[in-house]
UniProtKB/TrEMBL annotation:
It comes from Eeniella nana. It holds the Pfam family Anticodon_1. Residues 968-1024 form the Leucine--tRNA ligase RagD-binding domain. Residues 818-946 form the Methionyl/Valyl/Leucyl/Isoleucyl-tRNA synthetase anticodon-binding domain. This is leucine--tRNA ligase. Gene3D superfamilies: HUPs, Isoleucyl-tRNA Synthetase, Domain 1, Valyl/Leucyl/Isoleucyl-tRNA synthetase, editing domain. It comes from the Eukaryota. It is an enzyme of class 6 (ligase). The gene is CDC60.
Amino acid sequence: MGSTMNTSKPVALESTTRRDTLVDIEKRYQEIWAGEKHFEIDAPTDKEEPYGTSVEKLHEDYPKWYSSMAYPYMNGVLHAGHAFTYSKADFATGFERLRGKRALFPLGFHCTGMPILASADKLKREIEMFGDDFSGAPSKEEEEKEMARDAKQKATNAHHEDVTKFTAKKSKVAQKTGRGKFQYEIMEQLGVPRDEIKLFADPKHWLEYFPPLVKTHVTKFGGRVDWRRSMITTDANPYYDSFVGWQMRRLKELGKIKFGKRYTIYSVKDGQPCMDHDRQSGEGVLPQEYTGIKIRVTEFTKEALDFFQKQKFDLSGKKVFLVAATLRPETMYGQTCCFVSRKINYGLFDAGNGEYFVCTKRSFKNMSYQDITPKRGEYQETLSINGGLLVGSKIHAPLTSIDTLRVLPMETILESKGTGVVTCVPSDSPDDFVTTKDLYNKPEYYGIDRDWVVKDPISIVNTSKYGDKCAEYLVNELKIHSPKDANQLTKAKELAYKEGYYNGTLLKGKYVGEKVEVAKPKVKNDLVAANEAVVYSEPESAVMSRSGDECIVSLEDQWYLDYGEKNWKEQALACLEKMNTFNSETNNAFEGVFDWLKNWAVSRTYGLGSRIPWDPKYLVESLSDSTVYQAYYTICHFLHSDTYGQEPGLLNISADQMTDQVWDYVFCRKDEVESDIPKENLQKMRREFEYFYPLDESISGKDLIPNHLTFYIYTNVALFKPRFWPTGIRCNGHLMLNNSKMSKSTGNFRTLAQLVEKFGADASRVAMADAGDSMEDANFDESNANAAILRLYNLKEWCETMNKEKDSLRSGEYNFFDKAFNNEMDLLINETYEHYALTHYKLALKSGFFDYHYARDYYRDVSVLYGGMHRDVVFKYVETQAIMLSPVTPHFAEYLYREILGHKESIHDARWPTPEKPVSREITAELEYVRNLQRSIREAEIQALKKKKKGKASDVDKSKDVKLTLFVAGNSPEWQEKYVEVVRKLFEQSNLDDMKEVKQHIEERDMKKVMPFVSILKKELETSTPEEVFNRELPFDEVQTVKAGFAVLVKAPAQVKVVEITAVSFKSGDKTGKDVKTGEEVEIPNTKSIQNAVPGQPGVYIKNIK
């Protein structure tokens, strides 16, 4: 278990000369590429393949690749996290082009939903209050005082916050930008000049401002985007509006869209839903769903009973429940008590069927509009009782293993959040753990009996980071001593909840072993089904209507998508089963979502977007108009030539002409169509769709699995034939910056534009590739981007030098090191291909750039001793390095390809290098042998120069000349040959990991030397085939390799001067051997190194020359 991660500081560039040189190359080629239209990719024309050709033949004759990322929302520019996700799609597109495919990568702009309009409306109000230059706004000091008060309030509310979602006191824009109470301040943080901010009070201006900016930033990043296919969403684009209308109508016809009740922010006073534009405060606030745990009171305190008697309330025949609102129903297995506040007067409410709820009046008011209570809108309490009278009462809580618990006091409970009743899970809630500890240590102070307190938490969730008692771990780690340590408790709560939710595994109950994020909805559903809980919602934070009414959450009639419906779900799961999700974790996450996802509201009354065609008072919500936009990409360049759908496209079709029949025909749903669009144009559009669909790879952050990506699968299988169903979804983790979470409030934040400005495009892309490829959070390390500048620049300089001096490079026959480097290049080319194909870009960068660079350096250095480098080998390296780097560093690769190598065509039209012949295992082994022998010589040198004990001199005086002798064993010792066979048999019997079994086959006198030998063989079996490990014969002539390598081996020692080198071949056990140079007989020294020599591992002997 660990708690912290090493962080690295932002890099300050001491000099920008090298970077500027690379940036000049980037700018030059971006302009060239735009002119040459390299990224405008089309389906085969009817001349290349006649219309009516089968999709299978189309793809066989003209292979394709279609990649997409979740299109970004246009309330700001792209940040580094967006760029990380974007890079995955871009790298894939570059690689697939090298495989000879028509690789398409479009990018559109999402504008649907509430955030833009809410922010625009907020600006309108700020202009009314402060003027259009905002000069009347409060000072920074006044604002920070209020923010401090808000922070204190937030710390108090910490126990009730859902850490798996934003708290929505601010809009999405505000959440991403850190400090900024006012919208105009947020706009300034986005880089908008103060005098332009007033323009954003018109929501249309957002749509006009950010898309071109994002396009510019992506282009400067080296984007391989076909911008002809770009678009904005909403009814501002009439073509996309038509597309969404078709999608909605078809889903309704298929029975996928239904009408029913959904949770909505609601004003009782106004008698209607209170959407953002109706609110005096609370813009962006959404319903927060809780599980209301029904904790039955089995025995009230005497004080409570006396109070009931005084109030003439008869308990007989009634079940009384304390209702505790929780965001973590899966932790109810660990309840140890229930908390109330002595500062709150609770209501006792008739919940029907002989049940009574104890909670705050505010929360029961919400319940009365959610089909929980006997009659809608009735929330009058039967009586009011102070929380102090309940302290000490005996209770029974669902799921916990302890039969009888107590009601205990908690001072920090707020009446304005949740139900005012808090269930206690001290194993996983830092607040609960600290409060429980405080109650146990100070029972007199709290007016309770110590034996009411369950001292030891119940372990219910395990995480690799914090163990099975994460609350206790974090409280100790953060040195929290009191329930009053609000700020530290807030931090601990966030760490505990996020780690538990995303990485926790249940230890108790029906779903033992399941991930918390998977089990949570299952436990909730079980509790509700057993009548041990209710689903309860309230606003995430206070919402006031313009009429001055504090809003609640009500169940209101809405249109919704019936996700989870049996047949539809089976189709979606069938699609998932055939899909490449690139790792099992992504696949498991999808399966978990399919288990719990049910209906989803498709309608909204406020925001930007397209109207529900049959009920235009409603808008299509933002996650429902963004499920099959990849199909729209395939044809939108035919429809409009601009991003906004205002300028006609290549086929001069109007939006009105795009009827439902036309959409059906284009998307291969129907083969007949009545339209005034010429048949040839309809066929062109259909060809584009059926050629590029299905989408080969949808790229997104893992946080979109529970919604956008799952909706994407559902909608594709509903609307399209199985042959067009998605074939790949690749999810990545979140991106950290310099090993810390990105946050504007801390200053640890970068936009894409800032990264490119600081490091240039290609160096930034190298750092993105190096950041990571798994579902775990990745890390953009600025030091890697800075190092990439130096590495690329130095490679550029070396290639230019080679080009200038190519006539002086050696030609003719290859020597051993020419062959070896050529062979190693082929090996790394093949490795890199496999890494790219698996989308392992970090590994591709390692083998195709870092290891390739090391191999070149070794060849360059040893070639000095053998007449210099060979011209053909050098320029093979330059060309293959350029091609292998091109997916990651396209500008730099293009420079090498065109300006160093002299190619007329672009590297975007190059093909992945194919080795002329298979990689030679013999040459690979020979080269590795020479390198290992160099290391062995250096190690032997260190040992020879070590001073001996008791002040005795070392074996070698480094001030004098030495002779280096390599003793090459012709065979292995008999004992090794014997035990190789033993290990082989144990391996074939799968008993090699059973050490007891291994030792039974080893003689006692051999144990000391054999066991290390067995360990070596086991380690070799991890990286090599059994045939390679157990066949002890070398695939090359060891003596000849040593002789050929004398020139490089003599240079291996770092401190002594070798003036003579030779090698002696001998048989294991012999006392003499043969000098391979002179043929003379040589006595074998009795040293450990030489006695342990085996084929492939010579003994090294260094001795001063007398």
